[in-house]
Amino acid sequence: MRKVTTRLATSAQVLYDFTAEPGNNELSVREGETITITNQNVGGGWIEAKNSRGEVGLVPEDYIEVCSGYQKWLLLAQKTGTSNGNDPWAVFDSNASGGFSNNWAAQPEGTETGETSSSAWHSGGHGHPQAYQGPGAEDDEWDEEWDDVKSSGGYAESEAGEGGAIHRGGAHGSSMKIALNKVLIAISFYMMRVRIYTVFQGGEAGPVWAYPDYQLDCVVADPKKGTKMYGLKSYIEYQVTPTTTNKPVNHRYKHFDWLYERLLDKYGSAIPIPCLPDKQVTGRFEEEFIKMRMERLQGWMSRMCRHPVVSSSEVFQLFLSYKDEKDWKMGKRKAEKDETVGVMIFSTIEPEGLPDLDLIEVEQKCEQFNRFTRAMDDGVKDLLTVGNEHWKRCTGPLPKEYQRIGKAFQNLSSVFNSSGYEGEATLTDALTAAGKTYEDIAQMVAEQPKKDLHFLMETNNEYKGLLGCFPDTIGVHKAAIEKVKEADKLVATGKITTSEKITMSKRASTMSYALQAEMIHFHTNRIYDYNRVMQQYLEQQVKFYEMVKCGNNSKSSRAFHNVGRC
C-alpha cells in the first residue's frame, strides 16, 4: 500500500446551502460540498474559500465545518488513488469485481448502508443545531438556549428514547462505515499522538478497563437564572462540583449538550454514550422542570464519571475543572480539532498482555451480548410501561376511590347521628374517624410514587437510553468480524497480503477486547444500580404500609373496638 505524503490543505464541509449576492465577492456553495479554505482571517464571520470549480469567494463561517485531520486524510486518499485501485478495501466501497459489496455484513442491526463517501462524511458532524461550531464560532453565536423537542416530563415512550445516541447524533453509523474499512488495516496512513486506554485481564469475568485508583464523582446543584443582552435572553446555570477539586464550575444546558456531542464523536464507536435529558420548548424556567432536569443531569454526569475511559478524557476533565473563560474556550477549540474520533478510537486501545482472540470466540461473545441487551431493552421498556400506568392510577383514580369510600363512611355517620338515639355516639364517631382515615390514605397514595416509584423509573429511563446506544456499538464489531472473515478471499485474489490479513485479525481482536471490557463495565454498573434502586423502592413501600397501619387507621380501629365493648 502506498503511503500518503502530500501536504494536506485546510478543507471544510458545507453544512447548508448558501447563495452569493451579486457584486459582494461571495461564493455560492451547496450542502455536502467540500471546499478549500484559502483565508481564515477575513473577519466579520466570513472566510475565503475555493470550491471544486476553482471559484474563490467569501462564505459564512457558520455554514461550514472544518474537516478533522482524519477527514482530510480520507479526502486526500480518495483524490490520490489510495481509496480505489491501491486500497485493499476499495472492492467493498465500489462494489467492484469479486461480488463483494459494502453492505455492513448484510446490514447488521443498528447501522446504515448505501451512503457514498462524501455524504457519509457530511453526516459526521451530527448536524446538531446547538453544537459548538468550531474555531470560527464565538460563544454568543450559539447562545440561544432554545429547545427543539418537547418533553412530556413523564416516563412514557419518548421520541429520543428508541434510537439512543443515533437520534441525537444524526447519521453516526454512516460516518463509521467508511472509516472502519480503513481502521483495520490503514491506520499507518495517518500517525497521531494519542492517549492509550488499557484493557487487561480482570479475572474469571474477562478483560476489564484499567480503572483509576480514585473514583471520580461530581455534584450538579444550585440552579440559577441568568440573563444577558440587557435581559433579552434568559438561561439556567448549574453548579458542577467535582470531587477531585471541590471547586464548582458553572455550566448551562447547552454546555452539557456540547460535552455529549464531543463524547459521542470520540467514543461512540466503542462506548455507549447515553442521551442527555430531553429538551423542552415551553416551561423551561418552571421550578418543577428545573428540578427534574437537574436531577437527570446529575444522573448522566454520575454515569460518565463512573466510566474509566470517559472520566479520564481531556474533554471531560475540561468540563469539570476549567480555570476561567479563556481556558474553557481554548479547551473547546482543542476538543473540536481532536483527530481520534469515530472508529479511530480503537487505535488508542491496548490489550495489555492479552493474546489475540479466535474469530469464532469474538463472534460468539459479540452475539451473546447483543442478545442480552435486546432482551434487557424489552424488559426495561415493559417496566416503564407498567410503572407509568401505575403512577397514573396512584395520582388519579385510586385516590379518588379512597376519597369516595371515606365520604361514604362520613355520610353514613351523619345519617346515624340524625336518629336521635343516645346510645350510638361511639359508633358514629368511629365511622367518622374511618372516613377521615380513608381520605388520609388517598393523600398518601397520591404522594407515594414520588417517594419510591420515581427513583425506579428514573433508573429504568437511564438504562433505556443507554441500551438504545448498543446496536450501533455492536454493529461496528459485527462489521469488523465480517471483514476479517472475508480476508482469505482477499488474499487469494491478491487484494491484500498475508501480513495485512494478520494485522486485520489483531485489530479485530483489540476491538473485541474493548467490547468485552465494556460489557463487564455495563454488567457491574447494572447490578449495582438495580440493587440500590430496588432496595430503596421496597424500603419506601414498607414505610408506606407501616404508615397506613400505624397512622389514623389505628385510631379508627380502636374506636370500633370501643364500640364492641359498649
Name its key features.
single chain, alpha+beta, SH3 type barrels, PX Domain, Substrate Binding Domain Of Dnak, Chain:A, Domain 2, 3 domains, 5-stranded antiparallel β-sheet, 51% helix, disordered N terminus, SH3 domain, phosphatidylinositol binding, Sorting nexin
Alpha-carbon Rg, integer: 30 Å
Low-confidence stretches: 1-8, 68-154, 156-178, 186-194
The helix content is 40-55%
Number of domains: 3
Give the structural class. Answer: alpha+beta
Mean pLDDT: 76
Number of strands: 11
CATH class placement of the largest domain: Mainly Alpha
User: Helical element count?
Assistant: 18
CATH homologous superfamily of the largest domain - what is it? Arfaptin homology (AH) domain/BAR domain
Question: What is the makeup of the main sheet?
Answer: 5 strands, antiparallel
Fold-level CATH name of the largest domain: Substrate Binding Domain Of Dnak, Chain:A, Domain 2
Arrangement of strands in the largest sheet: 4-3-2-1-5
Terminal CA distance reads 103 Å
Element pattern in H and E = EEEEEHHHHHEEEEEHHHHHEHHHHHHHH
Domain PX: 216-326
Keywords: Cytoplasmic vesicle, Membrane, Protein transport, SH3 domain, Transport
Binding site for a 1,2-diacyl-sn-glycero-3-phospho-(1D-myo-inositol-4,5-bisphosphate): 252, 254, 293
GO cellular component, one term: plasma membrane
Could you please describe the fold and organization of this structure?
This is Sorting nexin. It is a peripheral membrane protein. Residues 100-168 are annotated as: Disordered. With 566 residues, this protein is an alpha+beta fold. The protein has three domains: 11-75, SH3 type barrels (Roll), CATH 2.30.30; 214-354, Phox-like domain (PX Domain), CATH 3.30.1520.10; 367-564, Up-down Bundle (Substrate Binding Domain Of Dnak, Chain:A, Domain 2), CATH 1.20.1270. Helix content is 51%, strand content 11%. It contains 18 helices and eleven strands. It has helices spanning 69-80, 90-94, 117-122, 165-168, 172-183, 253-267, 287-305, 308-311, 314-321, 325-336, 359-395, 397-417, 425-451, 453-467, 470-485, 487-492, 498-550, 552-565, and strands spanning 11-14, 34-43, 46-50, 56-60, 64-66, 197-201, 207-209, 218-228, 233-242, 249-252, 349-351. A five-stranded antiparallel beta sheet has the order 4-3-2-1-5. The longest helix is centred in the last third of the chain and has 53 residues, at 498-550. The model is unreliable at 1-8, 68-154, 156-178 and 186-194 (pLDDT under 50).
